[in-house]
Write a structure and sequence with these properties.
9-stranded mixed β-sheet; binds pyridoxal-5'-phosphate; D-amino Acid Aminotransferase, Chain A, domain 2; 365 residues; 18 strands; alpha+beta; 26% helix; single chain; 2 domains; D-amino Acid Aminotransferase, Chain A, domain 1
Length: 365
């Protein structure tokens, strides 16, 4: 049932779209993940029929059987990317093929079906076609796009489901830092890890996120906005944050980031930063980095900047790394120079203010 022909989408337009006035009110102050566009994409899958029933329909609650495997065994994956409005009104995605391929890798790990790359792209194109007016157009705003897939077979037995569904929803997003980019403190969790060797760390799945919520609460209690996880085996090496990758900048101007060991999510932003840094002639070292050398490096000045990266905030400067018996960096540390200049270059490419030498941008409207 793996036909190579692309899926055709049936479109059912909502008869209850938000009024232009209500939509404008939302777009003036969208926040993050609070409001959703008028439509969503659904594609069904079954072992016998393959992918079928591709459609765009009014946004609304799902009818999910209570015995669906996703509700019991967390057979679920997702993606996150943004649509950016350029000065001339056109709408663009940033490296969506990478999200499509990553979703296929996540699917393979979670024993879910792989959606062909062209169908992934087309599903987003179709949604933007009906909901393009939801892409905000000022400052660092965007339409956040959330493709996801669930196992929805009615069966409590433990095996890969034979029925699944893929969805795309979209949510207008305001600037992540409305008052200007501000460095954050991060909390090293030493009691909890996010992903172990051979686990699902490299897959974008809900289960990894539920495992990160308790340590995230611990981070908040300690005045930190994000949690930093160490490797599960030795508890010694930096891995990543709950939903962001990590970079350090050395005083010689080189960048350092944890290598992809299999328990780290391969961020599209991470990869883009490595590329842009190398374009500038900077050395980028991907290797195992100990917490100890990081704390020492921040104390001696060997490490001069630290930042986290991901689609939502692009680049977030890190002021301090805290934890049980850990305190590194300065509370009032300003955002690093390289941190901010790479952030600017990347967002300038995304918003069409700079040429796009790597053909990362894909026009969708
Ligand atoms: C999504 C995600 C990232 C960032 O990936 P981007 O493609 O840059 O958005 C990093 N870590 C985790 C755990 C993630 O889920």
């Amino acid at each position: 049932m793996n036909s190579s022909a692309a899926l055709a989408f049936e479109i059912t337009e909502s008869t209850q779209r938000q009024s232009e006035q209500d939509r404008q009110k939302i777009l003036d102050n969208p926040g993050f993940g609070l409001h959703f566009t008028d439509h969503m994409v659904v594609i069904d899958w079954s072992l016998t029929k393959g992918w079928h029933g591709a459609r765009v329909q009014p946004y609304g609650p799902l009818l999910v059987d209570p015995a669906s495997s996703v509700l019991h065994y967390a057979q679920e994956i997702f993606e996150g990317l943004k649509a950016y409005r350029h000065q001339d009104g056109s709408i663009w995605l940033f490296r969506p093929q990478d999200n499509a391929r990553r979703m296929q890798r996540s699917a393979a790990r979670l024993a879910l079906p792989e959606l062909p790359e062209e169908d992934f792209l087309q599903s987003i194109r179709e949604l933007i076609k009906v909901d393009h007016m939801w892409v905000p157009g000022s400052g660092e705003t965007s339409l956040y796009i959330r493709p996801f897939m669930i196992a929805n077979e009615r069966f409590l037995g433990v095996r890969a489901a034979q029925h699944a569904a893929y969805y795309v929803i979209a949510s207008p997003a305001g600037a992540y830092f409305p008052k200007g980019v501000a460095p954050v403190n991060i909390w090293v969790s030493q009691a909890h890890t996010r992903a172990g060797r051979g686990g699902t760390g490299a897959a974008k799945c809900g289960g990894n996120y539920s495992a990160s919520l308790l340590p995230q609460q611990e981070a908040s209690r300690n005045g930190c906005s994000q949690v930093l996880f160490l490797d599960a085996q030795e508890g010694k090496y930096l891995e990543e944050l709950g939903g962001m990758n990590l970079f350090l900048v050395r005083k010689d101007g080189s960048l350092l980031t944890p290598s992809l060991t299999g328990s780290i999510l391969e961020g599209v932003t991470r990869d883009s930063i490595i590329t842009l840094a190398k374009d500038r002639g900077r050395a980028v070292e991907e290797r195992k980095i100990t917490l100890e050398e990081t704390v020492n490096g921040l104390a001696t000045g060997e490490i001069v900047e630290a930042f986290a990266c991901g689609t939502a905030a692009v680049i977030t400067p890190i002021a301090m790394i805290k934890g049980d018996g850990v305190s590194a960096g300065r509370e009032d540390a300003p955002a690093g120079e390289l941190t901010m200049s790479i952030r600017k270059e990347l967002t300038d490419i995304q918003y069409g203010r700079l040429p796009d030498p790597h053909q990362w941008m894909v026009k969708v409207h």
